C-alpha cells in the first residue's frame, strides 16, 4: 500500500532524530467511516494509517485527527469540505488524508492548495485532478487516475472473439 510507504518516507527524511523545539506532526483524515463499498473507507485504510503513524512516531510524535466525510452512508459533497475546514481551523494539520470520492476531493483539494497543505488520497481518479498548476497543486494521488487507466487500456492486448 502506497500510503504507509509515503508516510515512512516522511519519517526517513526526518532522520529519526527530533530537532530541538520540534512540534508534533498532525495528520488529518477525512474519509467515509462505515461504508465499506468505498475502497478508501476508514475500516479498510485505518490499519495501514495506524502502522504508518506508529513508524512515524519513532521519529517524531504524531497527532492523528479523524472526521467522517460520510452522510447517511454516502460520500458527502458538503460534509467533507466543512470537515477539512474545521480540521484546519482547530488542529492546523501538516497533512490531509482523503477524501477519495471525486466531488468531495475536488473541494478539499482546492482548500488544501490554498492552504499550501499536502493532500494525500487514494481516490480522486478524475482526469481534472491532473491540473496541478491551477487548483490541485498540493494533491498527491496514490491510486489510479483516469488518464493512467486509459493508457493501461491501450496496452492491454485485444484478443479476437472465437
Automatic annotation (TrEMBL):
SUPFAM superfamilies for the chain: Periplasmic binding protein-like I
Gene3D superfamilies according to UniProt: 3.40.50.2300
Membrane topology field: Single-pass type I membrane protein
Main location: membrane
Coiled coil, from the record: none
Domain Receptor ligand binding region, chain residue ranges per copy: 45-146
GO cellular component: membrane
UniProt-annotated location(s): Membrane
Signal peptide (from-to): 1-22
Keyword field: Glycoprotein, Membrane, Receptor, Signal, Transmembrane, Transmembrane helix
Domain of life: Eukaryota
InterPro entries, sorted: ANF_lig-bd_rcpt (IPR001828), ANP_Clearance_Receptor (IPR052612), ANPR/GUC (IPR001170), Peripla_BP_I (IPR028082)
Record protein name field: Natriuretic peptide receptor 2
Organism: Homo sapiens
Amino acid at each position: 500500500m502506497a500510503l504507509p510507504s509515503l508516510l515512512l518516507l516522511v519519517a526517513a527524511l526526518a532522520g529519526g532524530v527530533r530537532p530541538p523545539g520540534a512540534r508534533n506532526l498532525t495528520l488529518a483524515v477525512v474519509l467515509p467511516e462505515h461504508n465499506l463499498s468505498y475502497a478508501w473507507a476508514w475500516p479498510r485504510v485505518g490499519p495501514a494509517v495506524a502502522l504508518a503513524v506508529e513508524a512515524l512516531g519513532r521519529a517524531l510524535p504524531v497527532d492523528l485527527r479523524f472526521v467522517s466525510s460520510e452522510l447517511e452512508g454516502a460520500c458527502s459533497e458538503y460534509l467533507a469540505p466543512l470537515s477539512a475546514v474545521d480540521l484546519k481551523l482547530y488542529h492546523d494539520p501538516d497533512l490531509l488524508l482523503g477524501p477519495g470520492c471525486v466531488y468531495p476531493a475536488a473541494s478539499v483539494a482546492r482548500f488544501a492548495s490554498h492552504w499550501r497543505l499536502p493532500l494525500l488520497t487514494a481516490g480522486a481518479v478524475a482526469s481534472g485532478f491532473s491540473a496541478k498548476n491551477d487548483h490541485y497543486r498540493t494533491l498527491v494521488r496514490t491510486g489510479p487516475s483516469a488518464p493512467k487507466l486509459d493508457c493501461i487500456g491501450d496496452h492491454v492486448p485485444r484478443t479476437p472473439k472465437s
